[in-house]
Amino acid sequence: MTKTLRYAGLAVSVLALTAMAAGAQEVVDDQLVVNGEIPIVTEAPAPDYASALGTIRSGWTFRSEDTQMMQADDFDNPGMLGVEAARAAFNSEMGTGGESCASCHDDPESLSTVRGTYPKWDEEHGTVQTVEMQVQECQTERMGMEEPYGYNSTDMINMVALLSSVARGTPVNVAIDGPAEATWKQGEEMYYTRYGQLELSCANCHEDNYDNMIRADHLSQGQINAFPAYRLKDAALVSVQNRFRGCIRDTMGETFAVGSPEFVALELYVASRGNGLSVEGPSVRN
Amino acid sequence: MRHSTGLAALAIVFGTTFATATAFAETAPKDVAFDEYGEVAESLTGTAGDPESGAALMDRGKGNCIACHQVSDLSELPFQGDIGPSLDGAAGRWSEAQLRGIVVNAKNTFPDTMMPSFYHTGPYIRPGDGFTGKAPEGELPPILTAQAVEDVVAYLMTLTDEQN
């Protein structure tokens, strides 16, 4: 860990020097390739149901060059520290029978198809589940833990970051039809509902005004393919539903709870608007 | 409406020495009279707006108008947004009644506008207690007071040049 940190510091210094030498107005390279080996699709044709966007764009394309570059190398990406913590937890005994995640799943890489397909209909429970709910299900129903990771706990965010990191470069491809359709439609309705005293919907900012500035904030399309996101302003990894909570709070509205059925529905819908982008988490954002 | 106009006149007559009458004379959010174009001809308070206070309200805090609008006259304030149109020259394009109507509740002028309604008390969908994310306790006040609306309108009426 110390070594990783030292390299990260070194890399940041080198980056800073390079940036200074090159000047601030250097043209941004619009291709994100993580560690020089994982190409990330950051722009793609919009799915039919998000045709208002024309092209779907990862939040990465809206950020400054410095922030973009932090995500291009795991030594520079502070979110990777959470991934490393979760990798250790993955191999640690958690359950009453001494099981770890690795008891069933070998290694995190064997779960590389998970992140891009969640939220997903769960036949056994008759509901749409997020990755967090699936982790909790494993912990309580398979490993016998009385207290699973809290939905928005650091342990959980780190675990989701780990599952995202091993899926980077794979397409977001959530199912919106069949048994998931009713939940998806609920999420769609929420997306266009103007909440709070400011009466703002997700669409007001992220469909109608992406690329515009709201005070100092450069509005993105609100894509969630890159969560968990390491937010520089919070100096922490942030879960997608915690970001939803922050958005509704900022409408001068009463938020829904993280992990609530409403936010699960919204997550499915918003995830589907990014079908075709790559899984990108843990990302770096401002 | 006639009733509150009468009180407003009364308040003007007695001036600020009769403070309770001034407060009483305010038109409540639900009583604001819009015409068919969304204009509000009458002052909400009967007290002339103060453009200096209005300018202060354009910044973060209460009105935060420049979160979405550009105002060259306030160029010392950084990071002005570009969601809504520039307000430069607003007084040349709009009348006071139109501006008052837009600040009070722009949705009566532009039905689909994203602009929040600044002198309005709902009904809202899941209103919160300010920016806490929690449900409010009791009735929600409008975002701006009646006098603050008048102050903002008075400030906007000073923006006569296209490039202030």
From TrEMBL, chain B:
<keyword id="KW-0408">Iron</keyword>
<protein>
    <submittedName>
        <fullName>Sulfur oxidation c-type cytochrome SoxX</fullName>
    </submittedName>
</protein>
<keyword id="KW-0732">Signal</keyword>
<feature type="signal peptide">
    <location>
        <begin position="1"/>
        <end position="25"/>
    </location>
</feature>
<dbReference type="InterPro" id="IPR036909">
    <property type="entry name" value="Cyt_c-like_dom_sf"/>
</dbReference>
<dbReference type="InterPro" id="IPR030999">
    <property type="entry name" value="Thiosulf_SoxX"/>
</dbReference>
<keyword id="KW-0479">Metal-binding</keyword>
<feature type="domain" description="Cytochrome c">
    <location>
        <begin position="49"/>
        <end position="160"/>
    </location>
</feature>
<keyword id="KW-0349">Heme</keyword>
<dbReference type="Pfam" id="PF00034">
    <property type="entry name" value="Cytochrom_C"/>
</dbReference>
<dbReference type="InterPro" id="IPR009056">
    <property type="entry name" value="Cyt_c-like_dom"/>
</dbReference>
